[in-house]
Amino acid sequence: MKLILDIGNSSVNWANEKKSKFISQGSFVYDKKNFENSLEENIVLTKNITTILVSNVAGQEIFTSLDSWAKEHGCLKLWQPVVDEKFKGLNTNIYQTQDIGVDRWLSMVACWEMHQSSLCVVNCGTALTIDLINVERGVGNHLGGYILPGVDLLQSTLIKNTKNINFSINSFPSIEYPSDTKTAVNNGAFLALVSSIDRVVNGFKKDSGRLPKCIISGGNAKLIESLLEHKFEYIPNLVLHGLLITHNTSI
Questions:
Q1: In what helix (H) or strand (E) does residue 192 lie, and over which residues does it extend?
Q2: Phi–psi pair at 141, nearest 5 degrees
Q3: Residue among 47, 43, 46 nearest 15 (CA)
Q4: Residue 103, SS3?
Q5: What DSSP assignment string belongs to 122-174?
Q6: What is the per-residue pLDDT across 39-76, written as a single tens digit (0 to 9) for each?
Q7: Could you report the per-residue pLDDT of 199-245, keeping only the tens digit for each?
Q8: pLDDT tens, 207-216?
Q9: Contact (Cβ atoms closer than 8 angstroms) between residue 51 and residue 57
Q10: Residue 197 DSSP one-character state
């Protein structure tokens, strides 16, 4: 039995896996100053868990805290994937491997495993990422991608750095014309991200003559999905699925 962790910049998605099935899962916002305590409060380790699969984009200090927590619970084995330039027909060799975040790569691996077609993969977290894969003769080639501030970060940055915009916003998915400042900040953030995604998808269609399979994931995915021009399939926890796929391939 495995515990699978996707450690992002502000939150953790997790799942307990048995025989390639997620038997329980959840997510939580963590305390960067006391990560071990956040783990202890939100995850129950049973004696059946022998291995922890980890995707971590939050830095070495967070990983060190995870390692200490695992050792406190019986020296559980920690496993991290390494970006593979050629993984099961998915090529990411346009990058040096250290240039692409492991979470982006794992999301693409999960989508490629499911569909093996041209893909647009969008992840909506603290940052919003867009990645394109073009398929030729059964091989998927990663064309590249974009990293943007997520909707919450766009809104909070504007509020923090402007004198007369000093209110809190509860994100509501809309790109309608706003009639007040608060709505303008909200809708402006969504407009920026929705327009970016739509442009990427339409650009791929223009260049290739076909639409890619569009997949969206992440904490704010449902908010953004409803506003997009093209149909996106919502698949939660892509990174967790990618972790399980890469680990099972490595053993």
A1: helix 181-208
A2: -115, 120
A3: 43
A4: helix
A5: EEESSEEEEEEEEEETTEEEEEEEEEEE-HHHHHHHHHHT-SS----------
A6: 999 998 888 899 999 999 999 999 999 999 999 888 68
A7: 999 999 999 999 999 999 999 999 999 999 999 999 999 999 999 99
A8: 999 999 999 9
A9: no
A10: H
Q: Which domains does the chain show, CATH number per domain? A: 2-80 (3.30.420.40), 86-244 (3.30.420.40)
User: Rounded CA gap, 218 and 243, in Å?
Assistant: 15
Sign of the dihedral defined by the CA atoms of residues 117, 93, 60, 149, in that order = negative
d(Cα 53, Cα 244) in Å, to the nearest integer?
Answer: 8
Cβ pair 238, 217 in contact under 8 A: yes
What tokens were used for 108? Answer: 């693409």
Position 163 pLDDT exceeds 80? no
Sequence-ordered list of residues with C-beta below 8 angstroms from that of 160, at least 6 positions apart, any chain? none
What are the phi and psi torsion angles at 164 (to 5°)? -100, 5
Structure tokens at 154: 């766009």
